[in-house]
Every structure is written in C-alpha cells, then in structure tokens.
Design a protein that fits this description.
Number of strands: 11
Number of helices: 13
Structural class: alpha/beta
Bound molecules: pseudouridine-5'-monophosphate, manganese (II) ion
Largest sheet: 11 strands, mixed
Order of helices and strands: EHEHHEEHEHEHEHHEHEEHEHHH
Helix content: 40-55%
CATH architecture of the largest domain: 3-Layer(aba) Sandwich
Strand content: 5-15%
Shape: globular
Distance between the termini: 38 Å
CATH class of the largest domain: Alpha Beta
Length: 310
C-alpha cells in the first residue's frame, strides 16, 4: 500500500515522482481503457504492454486511476490488478473523482479525469486510444463526452488515434474548435477515425516528427495558449486498420442495436466498443491494441523531445 496522499490529493509512484523531479520524460496513461474499453482477461496484459512500450521509447509511464479512494499517478501490480479485474471499478469522470475518493472506492479514469489528474501532477504528455466526443444523436440526447470541455481547460498534450466513427466526427471537430482545443495531425492532414486512418475530415495543421510537436508545445507555453489541451491525432497504420467494408458494416449494426437497446449515459461508449470486439471476432481488439501502443511510443518520443529542450 502506498503512503498517504500529498496535499494536492495525489499519490505519485516513486519512479514517476523521481522522473518529474528531474525533468525526465513521463507519459500519463488512462485506466478506463483497461477496465471498460478492453475485454478481460487480456486487458491486464495489454495495460502492462502499454507501459513497457512507453519505457522502451524512453519515458516513464504513469497509469492513472483511483484505488481505495486514492488518486494514484502510476500503479503498482496490486493496483493494476484491481483496475483490470475488480467488478467494483467505476468509470470516473472529473465530476465523480471526489465522491469515489471520499467514499474510498475504485475508479478507472476517463480521458477527462486522467488529463485532469495528470496535469495536476505536472505531467505534460498523455497517450490513449480514442477521445470521447459528440454522439450521433446528440441534438436529441445532449450526449457529448466530458472529455471535450475538460480538455478545453486542461494544459496537456494528448496523443490519440482520433475519435471512433461511432461518434459524430464532424460535430466533434466543430466542438473542439469552439472550445479552443488544439488539433494537429501526425503525418496526416486528415482527422483519423480510430479503427480507420481517415475519417474523411480535413485538419488544418500537421506535424511530421516528435520534434515538431515538441516545438508546438513550447510555443503554446510561450504564447500562453497552453491552458487548453493539444490533441495529436496519430492515425492507425493502414495495414493495422480494420478493413473499410467490415468497419462500415459493424458500425451500422452497432448503432442500430444501441438505438434499439435502452443503453444511456456513460454506458453508451463501452456498449459500442464491446459490440465491435464481438462482431469482428476480436479483430477490432487487435486494432485497438496496435494503435494504443503506437500512441504510447509517439507520446514518449514527444516527451523525450521536450526533455531534450525542443
Ligand atoms: N473511446 C475509445 N475507447 C475508450 C474510450 C473512448 O475509443 O476506451 C473511453 C475513454 O476513457 C474516454 C471515455 O474518455 O471512453 C469516454 O466516455 P464517454 O463517451 O462516456 O464520455
Ligand atoms: Mn456520454
């Protein structure tokens, strides 16, 4: 069991604390992906592989979650066991953090909650799979992920593979513009669609190397525009992606099923992800894992470029 939380309410793992104190590269990782985004029992193994990938690319991984009420920055084996296997793990957005902490519960942090806690810990880079965004029926349901408003007020760089096409991608891009969330394509001028490298929507800005992204981060700080997040949209490689035809078919089926099923609120995203995993006989899971590992590598390289004074 780690020691008590510091005055900022966080319990930082020793290797992460050491890296932060010395200015070494650190990459934050989310935990909802582990608990609610990936099926058991492979999820724990994947979580370890993501951390190992960050290390191999030269940074210290900090997986973030709430365990027994403690907001943990960096998980030991026992904490990772809880997040990957316990049925008592809530999906936690920033608004839920205080309740789970005060009640001593377990929480897997979404992109929003992970970004909040990572920034609070002084971590500048965060790798994940896909962001939450505006759902397709949002004009009726008002279902827009808290990821967007939280990224609008959180100074962090998030490396992701765009957003899933289960969402309204056009509306999500519009909201990111309104909210002042920066977006750059990595090696692309198109916004990626998670399982596919191209959502069909153009991006205004691209970077082609970790050093270029690091320079953008430096300029944001210099100009004071780092009060919101920068999204680095890193497309899945075509050879790792879901075939287009399979993607389109499964997406249509999943959306139909969600419309017929009474699934609402924070259960919608996990429901659709599980449908993809099942309907593609695990192929979507492989794509998901491949792209998260690529994002972990890129985030670590950007963090290393920043630490190198870029
Ligand atoms: N998108 C994915 N995979 C995920 C998630 C989103 O492709 O696992 C998770 C992330 O943790 C994200 C959360 O922050 O779902 C968004 O959930 P909601 O749509 O309920 O805000
Ligand atoms: Mn929602």
């Amino acid at each position: 069991m780690p020691g008590p939380a510091s005055p900022d309410g966080l319990v930082v793992a020793p290797d992460v604390a050491e890296a932060l104190a010395s200015g070494a590269p650190v990459v934050a990782l989310e935990s909802t992906l582990i608990s609610h985004g990936l099926p058991r029992p492979d999820n724990r193994d994947v979580a370890v592989r993501i951390e190992d990938t960050v290390r191999a690319a030269g940074a210290v991984p900090a997986t973030i979650a709430v365990v027994e009420g403690q907001a943990r920055i960096g998980l030991d084996d026992a904490a990772l066991d809880v997040i990957a296997t316990s049925d008592e793990v809530a999906k936690v957005s920033p608004r839920d953090l205080a309740v789970v902490a005060a009640q001593g519960g377990h929480g897997a942090t979404t992109v929003a909650a992970t970004a909040h806690l990572a920034a609070r810990a002084g971590i500048a880079l965060f790798a994940t799979g896909g962001l939450g965004g505006v759902h397709r029926d949002a004009s009726r349901t008002w279902d827009e992920s808290a990821d967007l408003p939280v990224l609008a007020r959180t100074p962090i760089t998030v490396v992701c593979a765009g957003v899933k096409s289960i969402l309204d991608v056009a509306a999500t891009l519009e909201r990111m513009e309104t909210l002042g969330i920066g977006v750059v394509g990595y090696g692309t001028s198109r916004f990626p669609a998670f399982y596919r490298p191209d959502s069909g929507f153009d991006l205004e800005w691209r970077c082609d190397t970790p050093e270029e992204v690091a320079a953008v981060i430096g300029a944001r700080i210099a100009l004071g525009t780092d009060t919101s997040a920068l999204v680095v949209a890193n497309p899945v490689k075509e050879e790792d992606a879901l075939p287009q035809e399979m993607h389109d078919r499964v997406l249509g089926e999943g959306l139909d099923l969600a419309a017929k099923t009474d699934v609402r609120g924070k259960d919608v995203t996990p429901f659709l992800l599980a449908y993809f995993h099942q309907a593609t006989a695990g192929l979507s899971l492989q794509v998901n894992i491949d792209l998260v590992l690529e994002n972990a590598t890129l985030a670590a390289r950007i963090a290393a470029a920043r630490a190198g004074g870029a």
